[in-house]
Every structure is written in C-alpha cells, then in structure tokens.
Amino acid sequence: MKKAIIILALIILLAPMAVLAYSVKTGDSVYLAKEEVLVGNLYAAGSNLTVEGKVDGDVICAGQSINITGEVTGDVICAGQSINISGNIGGNMRLAGNSINFSGQVARNAMTFGATIVTTASSTIGWDLLAAGNAFELRGDIGRDLYGGMAKANLAGKVGKNIKLNFGQQNNNGQPLTIAQTAEIDGDVNYTSNKNAVIEDGAIIKGATLHKLPETVVKKSNFIGLTWWWKNLIAIFSALVIGLVIISFWRETIVKITDLMSNKTSSAFGWGILALLLTPIIVFILLITVIGIPLALILLALWLIALCLSKVLVGILAGRWLLNKFLPQQKNSLILGMVIGIVIVHLLFAIPLLGWVLALLATLWGLGGIMLALRKT
C-alpha cells in the first residue's frame, strides 16, 4: 500500500491538475493536538480519534470514539460508535454512528444517521439537516430545512424554513413528535405519523402545520412483500455462491483476511475508507493521461470486484464468530459459518433506514480487510 501511495503521488504531480495533499493516521489512538495545523485532507482510523487542532481540508474518519473540537475548513465524513462534534466545520458534515452529539457549527449541509442524535443549543447548521434514526433532539439552529425519518423527535430549536419528517407506519411511541415551547419554525411543519404532534404553548410556527397519516398498504401489499423477499433472497443466494467459490479456491486467504478484519478492526475501516474514496480519483487521473487508460480499466474492475467481495467477507467473519461462540465443535467449518453469517448480515442489511448504513460499514470493513491483506503480501 505504501508503494501505491507513492505511485499516486507521482501521478498527481505529473497530471495536469492541482496537487492533492492528505495525511493518513491509524492506530488505537489518533490525536491532533490543539496547536497543530494540518494542511490537506485527514484520513484517520482508530479506536479513539481526537481532533483538537486545525485541519485545512476534509476529515474522513472511522473509529469507536470520535471527538472533533478543532476547526475543519472542509467536510467531515465520519462513522463510529460515539461521535461528538463541537468544532467549526467550513463545509458539509456527514455522520453515521450509534450516539451522535453535535454542539458545533457547520457552514453548509449536515446528514446524520444514528440511534440517538442530539444537536445542542450552541449548535448551528447553515443550510439543511437530514436526520435518520431512532431518537432525534433539536436544540440548536438550522438555517434552512429539516427533513428525515425517525421514531421520535423533540424539536426545541430554530428552523429557518420548512420541516418534513416521517415517523413510519407503525410507531409505538406515545408522542412521536414534540415541538417544545422554545421552538421557532419560520416555515411549514409537514409530518407523517399515526399520532398527532404535541405542540407546546409558546412554540412559534409561522407556516402551516400539515399532518399526514401513513399510507395504508392494501391489496398490493402481498406483491410488495413478495418483491421484498425475492430481492433479499436473490442477494443472499448470490452472496452464498460468491462465498462458496472464494472459499473453495482461496480458503487460507479468506481465513487470513477475516482474521485481519477481526484483529485490526479500526485499521481495516481506515484502509476501507481510503480504498473507497481514493481509487476513483486514481482511475480518473489515469484516464486523463490517455496512456494510463488500460491500467485505469483494470484498476476499476479490481475495485468493483473488491466491493462485491467486501460484504461477503463480513458475512464469513460473522459466521466464524458465531460458530466459535455458540458451536465451538463446528468452528473449523468455514462453509457452515459462511452460510450462517451471510444470511444474518443480509437480514440486517434489509432493515429500513438503518440497513444501508450497516451495508456501508460492512463494505468499508471488508474492503479494508482486503487492503490489509495486500499490505502484508
């Protein structure tokens, strides 16, 4: 991988375009001190990621605990278990995690996907906010629109334009949407729910409040349900076929890759992000050099193959872990583990809203495992 990075740097220097600066940081603990200034993009992966300094570029990271208190002039794209952002972001913010706490400032748009999402009173988002997950709380300010889907929302901040939220067809929360007395909404409130919103006295809504009931699925529901099942069954059987082939021909390699994914999870996510984002850039640069077109096509094909294999590898890893945990006498049966793991992970991928986030994380994890194996090779 080091050679690949060196080759990439040379290509960029020779290509008729601006030089792209970046820094890669991996390990159990990644730390950018308060007095540090990093010029270029920061790609980071580790158990604990802390950015207190300034990043003059984008921050793309993955880890268990992510804390950004410094300034980022570009975008922030991060995935982790616990994410806390209190710094200033000059571009867009895209976060996916279990717990997301935002108390900083974003100049442009924000996208958040998580079980619990909180924007504090000190937070500001210049443009729009897309939020999706379980519980959402807005205490800060949004310059334009708020939209998304969730199980429960408490709005106590300011929204510059309109709100459009969907709470699903079957919501068991007693109060899916609460608009607190401190809320100030300069546009319309449009929400879809099987229950009425709770609007406290003192809340300011300058536009109309529109309540839509979830659409009742009637006769077509059987067809839709069958389509959903067929779609997922095809995906599962396709993954099983791929898994069977790669285990049959490269059993030892698959074991090594999944071991690396398990033992170096943070590094795998970091390398997965790099491979996912940098490969299209390298392909593009090779294409515009004309003489590099054949290499670009080969690299693109290998990248697409790696993307297809990544989720299969996560399924195999999940199956190996389950067998080792609950059926230790069968722990060496890679085929059985592959079947169990692939079925389970694809059922998780089929979960509405959360499923595609899990699929993305699985892709990054598996892709990173392939990159780690290539580095060792």
Notable features of this structure?
about 40% helix; 14-stranded parallel beta sheet; disordered N terminus; alpha/beta; about 375 residues; 3 domains; 7-stranded parallel beta sheet
What is Rg?
A: 23 Å
What order do the helices and strands follow? Answer: HEEEEEEEEEEEEEEEEEEEEEEEEHHHHH
Specify the helix fraction band: 40-55%
Major sheet: size, sense and barrel closure? 14 strands, parallel
Question: In terms of structural class, how would the helical and strand content be classed?
Answer: alpha/beta
Mean pLDDT: 85
Q: Quick one: how many beta strands?
A: 24
Number of domains: 3
Count the DSSP helices.
6
Report the uncertain regions: 1-20
Distance between the termini: 10 Å
Task: Please tell me what the overall shape is.
Answer: globular
> What is the percentage of strand-forming residues?
25-35%
Q: Could you explain the architecture of this structure?
A:
The chain is of the alpha/beta class and 377 residues long. The chain has three domains: 73 residues, no CATH class; 108 residues; 156 residues, no CATH class. Helix 2 crosses helix 4 and helix 3 crosses helix 6. The N terminus is likely disordered.
